[in-house]
Amino acid sequence: MNTLIIYAHPSKESFNSSIKDQVIKELQRKKNEIKIRDLYQLNFNPILTEDDFTSFAQNKVPKDVQAEQSAISWANHLVFIYPTWWIGMPAILKGYFDRVFTNGFAFRHSKDGPQGLLNGKKVIIIQTTGQPEQYLKPNQLISAMETSVDVGILDYCGLEILTHKFLYSVPYVDKETREKMLKEVTDLTELL
User: Fold this and answer.
1) How many domains are contained in the chain?
2) In what residue span(s) does the Flavodoxin-like fold domain sit (predicted)?
3) String of b and e for 122-132 (b: at least 16 CB within 10 Å)?
């Protein structure tokens, strides 16, 4: 199986980086073909411009967007790994969705509503947070993030979400808890 990891954290020393490394290790063990799109390392431009709109309307996709769409087309599975910033994804990842998941590639509008074009692809989302579960869940912030990403973006584009895993209070947990979290990540790769 072909698995694309889309990673959005700027620090090589972050726990998100450890998660990415764990996912890679497990997918290699399973003999998956892997491509990694580290958005910060790529210096991906997240800003959707007027020129982008003009290019998309003329079926002229910018080269950086072509590269990302090609990687997505190649993949059977997508794994998104990112932190929670201001109760959402990092701006670079939001810009990735804005520029890469375009009309005609990821979805199409019709008189009957949107039609997802990325059908048959399966997704795992691993999202870390600095906040505890007991703060986020009662305030319905987890469900808000799940709805905006899982339904508003991925399902809209025809992708099947296998799981959206939240790892809570990451900056404040001890080494043993982080090891348990990495074990959970290992278990998630069995879905692929």
Assistant:
1) 1
2) 1-185
3) bbbbbbbbebe
- Boundaries of domain holding 151: 2-191
CATH of the domain at 166: 3.40.50.360
Residues 42-70: tens digit of each pLDDT: 999 999 988 877 777 777 899 999 999 99
pTM tops 0.90, yes or no:
yes
Q: What is the DSSP string of the chain?
A: -EEEEEE--S-TTSHHHHHHHHHHHHHHHTT-EEEEEETTTTT------HHHHHHHHTT---HHHHHHHHHHHH-SEEEEEEE-SSSS--HHHHHHHHHHS-BTTTEEEETTEEEES-TT-EEEEEEE-SS-HHHHTTTTHHHHHHIIIIIIIIGGGT-EEEEEEEE--GGGS-HHHHHHHHHHHHHHGGG-
- Backbone phi, then psi, for 2, in 5-degree steps? -100, 125
* 34 contact partners, CB below 8 Å, separation of at least 6: 2, 3, 4, 5, 24, 27, 28
pLDDT per position as a tens digit, 96-123:
999 999 999 999 988 888 899 999 999 9
The Cα 88–Cα 93 span in angstroms is: 10
